[in-house]
TrEMBL record:
This is Peptidoglycan binding protein. It comes from Kribbella sandramycini. InterPro entries: PGBD-like_sf (IPR036365), PGBDSf (IPR036366). It comes from the Bacteria.
Amino acid sequence: MATYIEFEGFRMDARTRNMLVEARRISGLTLRITQGGFNNGAVSASAGTHDGGGALDISAHYMTDAEIAEAIRRLRQVGFAAWHRMPSQGPWVEHIHCIAVDCSSLSKGAANQVKAYRKGKNGLANNGPDDGDQLYVKNTWESYQAGLAAKNGTRVSLSSIAYAARGGYFHSGQKVAEESARAAVRWMNRQKVVSDRDLRIWETRLRDAKAADTKAAWTYAGEQYAGMVRRYQVRFGLFPDGVVGPKTKAHLKAMLTKYSFRVVA
């Protein structure tokens, strides 16, 4: 089974959680979860769509029609296939059903719903028309984030990436450099070059290094960051030494610029 986390008492993958958190932010709505994923057929009415990752149900209780429409619009904006489900459509209470497009751990039923969504359908057995707007139907989480980067012009410093890989000290006055190094590996994560676990380990070691503030602790954090750089080098056919030298810098600059980052030396 694919790796999952627990968020607010429900199972899901980290990507789906991040999508939901962002949908909450841009909608300003609570979006309370009533069902997650990885439930192994526990809810027969879901027809297997929640057996894998990427699947969520959101409560529509106490939401106005306008709020439901806004919730669905913003869920779709961040990359969910999302529909308003009514009791008249099946054996369930009113809710919003969501499937994370391009999630790597979707069940077969959920993957079929994504295909239906892309065709303008409701994802139900009756293959009816989609009752939501189609503005964001082509969006994925990755395309949404790329759009944010283009809009915000996220700044990435190649020297900060190299500094992190060498085990550099990120003290309070180096917040910009730290965020630059973080932005680079988060982008690698979105491209599936490094894993969620890789990121978590680095963040933990970074936090520990700040607390201890010893050369050994910073070196330990740097080793993890260099390991992520090494994964990037392997993926793109560069010499896998974990060092951000001229060739790796040139490749990173080209790739990050392509994804609308503002890359500086």
